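Q: Could you write out the predicted structure for this multi-component system? I'm mainly interested in how the pieces pack against one another.
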Amino acid sequence: MEDIEHIPKELKLIDAKGIRLDGRRADELRPIKIEAGVLKKADGSAYLEWGNNKVLAAVYGPREAHPRHLQDPAKALVQCRYNMAPFSVTDRKRPGPDRRSVEISKVISEAFSAVVFVEQFPRTSVDVYIEVLQADAGTRCAGLTAASVALADAGIPMRDLVTSCASGKIGGVVALDLNKDEDNFGEADCPMAIVPRTGEIVLLQMDGHLTAAEFDEAMELSIGAAKQIYELQRDALRRRFASVAEAAQREAEREPPREEPPREMPPEMPEDLPPEVDDL
Ligand code: ADP
């Protein structure tokens, strides 16, 4: 059983002034923090907090795809594994993959396949791991946003980052970025992912019902929020590469100056030159 007993039966998710249970307005995101390069052993990594969601993403590759029969001679595979830790929700979640995590892994793999330059790395695999440490709705968006930063941290060539966000409907109002109570008791949730530079939508799902006008409104909210999230992703990468550059600078300063090898002198001319033909 999920921990929903604390919620009264007749719950008003948004009041007459347009304020939600957690104090946000309909068009407000939960606070987001992103840090890149948090794991030493992975090729790229990122840690993200999004409201009460906590997500870790790690990337390996491009590396030889295994099992070999999966290898594509024309391109790299982008393989994502989304996993929710048993301690990520109030009641212990049964460990291991379930239908939901297989579905989320698939849609995230497809979203990244649209931006990674897969043709450049035939027969290889780019492996993306998303571990949800704490879940409070919107974990696929949080995972995708973190994994995108981890891919860039790994130096995987991509057309752009992918940014993800969800909007839905609560108490008859279209609202951005639903939390767990809103997801449980709201009318609809619509996660999407976008390539901000081109505006291409690379993931779009819907749980519940929205009219066409509500859908447009929800997409407008998500696209607006994606611009803010994209800036946070870029900022995390800027901080990461500034610290890498600083570490390289410190390393260079610590190394003793290399001694110049002795310059080779040209061979000396022999004093007794052989007589020129004309002198003979
Ligand atoms: P998302 O996390 O992307 O919004 P869902 O809408 O499927 O995906 O899930 C909403 C929330 O429901 C999750 O973030 C999590 O808090 C909770 N949840 C999902 N699966 C489980 C589960 N097996 N056990 C307990 N809570 C779950």
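A: Regarding packing and overall arrangement: The chain has four helices and ten strands.
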